[in-house]
């Protein structure tokens, strides 16, 4: 799904962001300049500087808008009874968004500057992924820690999407995404709940996921048990 541009009838900020997104879509980041954006949005350069600071601030705001659109797509999907199938669907949605919005996706995922704080929508998007992973852990089907699983899915999914964006659209090997997706899922999940496949790591991960639902332990006891379970799960 492509990012929906803000209507030109909005205020200066909305018009500037809509113009930035349009220029990104048509010509990539190189096409975005304060002069080009100002001309497309019908505003003067001082207005852009006042609202966004500089070109980088403008690009950061466009990335935040892109994350918001991406998050809207992600949260529209209703979960099913199969959390692993839901993770597959989320991966495919991520890829579809990137291929439909390549310039914006590369701005969002391809050039994060070290030390910068991700926009709130990016944090919320990762939380959606973490929720998928947590549901798999609750089902007893996660073979690594939730944190490691989420980081692996995020890294592999975004890396695969960036790779496919770089390929010629007419010869794009989308099977690469399927292979990467299934390899990651095989690395982090089991075919059956941990209770049916004995092993300390799977059992520790499943119990760690279920801890928030118990009231038998004090906060101190829960914290200590989480530490022990995390230690087992990292083996």
CATH superfamily: Tetracycline Repressor, domain 2
What are the secondary-structure elements, in order, as H or E? HHHHHHHHHHH
Name the helicity range.
55-70%
CATH architecture: Orthogonal Bundle
Number of discrete helical segments: 11
Major β-sheet annotation: none
Poorly predicted regions: 4-8, 194-198
Just give the CATH class: Mainly Alpha
Instruction: Name the structural class.
Output: mainly alpha
- In the CATH hierarchy, the third-tier topology is known as Tetracycline Repressor, domain 2
The averaged pLDDT comes out at 83
Number of strands: 0
* Shape designation: elongated
Number of domains: 1
Residue share in β-strands: under 5%
- End-to-end Cα distance, whole Å, is 40 Å
**Rg calc:** 21 Å
């Amino acid at each position: 799904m492509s990012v929906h541009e803000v209507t030109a009838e909005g205020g200066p900020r909305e018009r500037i962001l809509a113009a930035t997104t349009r220029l990104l879509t048509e010509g990539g980041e190189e096409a975005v300049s304060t002069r080009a954006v100002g001309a497309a949005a019908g505003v003067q350069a001082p207005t852009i500087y006042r609202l966004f600071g500089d070109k980088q601030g403008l690009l950061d705001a466009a990335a935040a808008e892109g994350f918001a659109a991406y998050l809207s797509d992600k949260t529209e999907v209703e979960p099913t009874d199969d959390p692993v199938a839901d993770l597959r669907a989320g991966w495919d949605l991520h890829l579809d968004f990137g291929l439909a919005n390549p310039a914006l996706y590369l701005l969002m995922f391809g050039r994060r500057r070290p030390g910068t704080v991700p926009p709130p929508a990016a944090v919320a998007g990762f939380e959606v992924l973490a929720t998928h992973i947590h549901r798999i852990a609750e089902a007893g089907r996660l073979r690594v820690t939730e944190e490691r699983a989420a980081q692996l899915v995020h890294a592999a999914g975004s890396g695969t999407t960036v790779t496919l964006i770089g390929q010629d659209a007419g010869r794009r090997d989308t099977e690469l995404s399927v292979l990467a997706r299934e390899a990651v899922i095989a690395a982090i999940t089991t075919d059956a709940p941990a209770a049916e496949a004995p092993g300390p790591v799977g059992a520790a991960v499943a119990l760690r996921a279920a801890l928030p639902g118990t009231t038998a332990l004090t906060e101190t006891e829960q914290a200590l048990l989480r530490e022990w379970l995390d230690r087992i799960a990292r083996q």
